[in-house]
Each structure stands twice: as C-alpha cells, then as structure tokens.
Amino acid sequence: MNNRQPDINIEDQQAWLNELKNVKKTQQPEEPPSAPIYIEEVIPTVSYKNIPNIYQLSYLRVGDLSNMDGQTARRIKRCEYKIEGTLDLHGKTESIAYDCVFNFIKQSYLQNKRCVLIITGKGLSQNEENDIFSEKGKLKERTPVWLNSEQLRPLILGFIHPTEKLGGSGALYIILRKKK
C-alpha cells in the first residue's frame, strides 16, 4: 500500500481559493427558527401554596386509600365519582406516555376536575401471551410511579383500578385534590 498523499493540482487549488474570496458569512438569528416549546409556556403554573408539601405526603400505591376519610374512600372504591376526563395510552411509547400523563393530570387539576381515568392497557397482546421474555405492561407499571412524581403527587388524593366495565387492571381511576 502506498501511504503517499495524492498530488493536488495547483490550478484547482488556486481556483478554489479565488471562489472563497467572494463568500461572506450571513447574519445568524439569535434564536433558532424552531425553538422548543416548554410546558410552562403552554400550561399555566400550578400554585402549590395550599397543597401539602411533597415531603409530607406518603407514596401512593394502587388501591391504598388510607390517607383519606372513610366516606371518600368508599365512594372511590365503588367508582361513584363521575369521570370528567379520560386519557388512553394505548399505542404510545413510554416517553410520549409520560408527557401525556403529566400534561393530562396538570390540566385536569387546573380545570378543577375531581375524577379522571387513565387507560394504561393490561400489557398483553395476542402474539406475546406465550413469550416469557417479552416486556409486558410497561405503561401499566410506570404510570403509578409518574403519578408519585414531585410535580404530580401533590395534586392527587388517591387512585385505584376501577371496575372491569371501566378498564379493570388496565386503567387507573384517579381522584384529584380540590383546587384551592
């Protein structure tokens, strides 16, 4: 193998340098044309002053209603609260689903909704039922974790799996705190 650099034609090099003499740098805008939209710009910020501090709140588990009065807990168990909003996560990737859950809960709280339903799906597909190595129910598993995030936990009173009619173990029946 020959490691020798190819010969550069002096005339070509001179012609290239002559062309570059006329090139001028264009003025660049300060901000890129497609600046990202931040969630705070789209959704008003939530006032947390009348909501308990995240560090004073216990971690919510599906079906654990111990942090509320008995009458509210009974109404939640019976799914007596009217569902005022529904989010269906079927077909969404984990990162898109996270954004959807965050926006949905925050918007619902700001709109003074009391009860919402998130359909996560059960995580089983016809073709994967017998495949022991496939991941099943990723959104079903992750949604309760997201609901316990620092931004969302103060907005939520509790959640359960609703009746089969409303989605059973493939959905979450969520009771939001009253906006003060």
Main attributes?
about 180 residues, alpha+beta, Ribosomal Protein S8, Chain: A, domain 1, four-stranded mixed beta sheet
The poorly predicted ranges are 33-42
Helix percentage: 25-40%
Radius of gyration over C-alpha positions, nearest whole angstrom: 27 Å
pLDDT averaged over residues: 77
Describe, in plain words, how this protein is organized in 3D.
The structure is a single chain. The protein has a domain at 61-123 and 137-176: 2-Layer Sandwich (Ribosomal Protein S8, Chain: A, domain 1), CATH 3.30.1370.110. Helix content is 28%, strand content 11%. The protein contains 5 helices and 4 strands; from the N terminus they run αααβαβαββ. Strands 1-2-4-3 form a 4-stranded mixed beta sheet, covered by helices on one side. Helix 4 (94-110) packs parallel to helix 5 (138-147). The longest helix is centred in the middle third of the chain and has 17 residues, at 94-110. The model is unreliable at 33-42 (pLDDT under 50).
